[in-house]
């Protein structure tokens, strides 16, 4: 597990967390956290406390990061309407890595290699502590809704019908 902390993506997230003044530190999980359910089970928290980072491609080709509660599936039409764009496009693994610097399953909300438009699920605001990926499927970090909004300059939005 120690080799995970030396992983370039995890180091980039650790540096971003320190630079942005986050109070929590990266935690390594023995089990994979590729899905919100897996992460919640490993951390023994509610699935809604998992801040999943989902990447889309906007009509102009630029990246959109949707930080959503693990209890939601992003409603792409709702988000597109909220952003006043015609359509959101699914991002493939190559696009995600090129724009975020992370592989799918470990996309962090901070430490991106390219700038992105960021929105955050308002439902995450209902939790005292939320957990986000830290650049690797076995690495996560604790944070708060307010901390994530501030650090990512995210636009709060309802991203799924409740």
Keywords:
6 helices, YbaK protein, 162 residues, 8 strands, alpha/beta, single chain, 8-stranded mixed beta sheet
How many helices? The count is: 6
Secondary-structure-based class equals alpha/beta
Give the N-to-C terminal Cα separation: 37 Å
The domain tally reads 1
Mean pLDDT across every amino acid position: 91
CATH superfamily: YbaK/aminoacyl-tRNA synthetase-associated domain
| Overall outline | globular
Strand content: 15-25%
Q: What oligomeric assembly is this protein in?
A: single chain
* CATH architectural name: Alpha-Beta Complex
User: Residue ranges: pLDDT <50 for 5 or more in a row?
Assistant: none
For the largest beta-sheet, the strand count, sense and barrel status come to: 8 strands, mixed
Q: What's the number of extended β-strand segments? A: 8
Helix and strand run = HHEHEEHEHEEEHE
Radius of gyration: 14 Å
The fold-level CATH name is YbaK protein
Helix percent reads 25-40%
Task: Write a structural description.
By secondary structure, the protein is an alpha/beta fold. Strands 1, 2, 3, 4, 5, 6, 7 and 8 form an eight-stranded mixed sheet that branches. The protein has a single domain, classed as YbaK protein (Alpha-Beta Complex), CATH 3.90.960. Strand 6 and strand 7 (139-143) form a beta hairpin. 30% of the residues lie in helices and 24% in strands. The model has no long low-confidence stretch (mean pLDDT 91).
Topology (elements, then pairings):
Layout (H helix, E strand, L loop, with lengths): L1 H4 L2 H13 L6 E2 L7 H8 L6 E8 L5 E7 L6 H8 L5 E2 L2 H8 L16 E5 L8 E7 L2 E5 L1 H8 L2 E3 L5
Parallel strand pairs: 2-6, 3-5, 5-8
Antiparallel strand pairs: 1-7, 2-3, 2-4, 6-7
């Amino acid at each position: 597990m120690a080799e995970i902390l030396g992983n370039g993506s995890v180091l980039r997230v650790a540096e971003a967390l320190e630079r942005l003044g986050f109070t929590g530190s990266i935690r390594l999980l023995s089990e994979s956290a590729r899905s919100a359910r897996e992460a919640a089970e490993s951390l023994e928290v509610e699935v809604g406390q998992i801040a999943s980072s989902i990447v889309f491609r906007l009509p102009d080709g630029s990246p959109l990061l949707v930080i959503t509660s693990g209890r939601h599936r992003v409603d792409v039409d709702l988000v597109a309407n909220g952003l006043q764009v015609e359509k959101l496009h699914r991002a493939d693994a190559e696009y995600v890595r090129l724009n975020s610097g992370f592989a799918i399953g470990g996309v962090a909300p901070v430490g991106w290699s390219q700038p992105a438009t960021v929105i955050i699920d308002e439902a995450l605001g209902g939790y005292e502590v939320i957990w986000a990926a830290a650049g690797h499927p076995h690495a996560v970090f604790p944070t708060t809704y307010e901390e994530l909004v501030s650090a990512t300059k995210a636009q709060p939005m309802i991203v799924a019908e409740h």
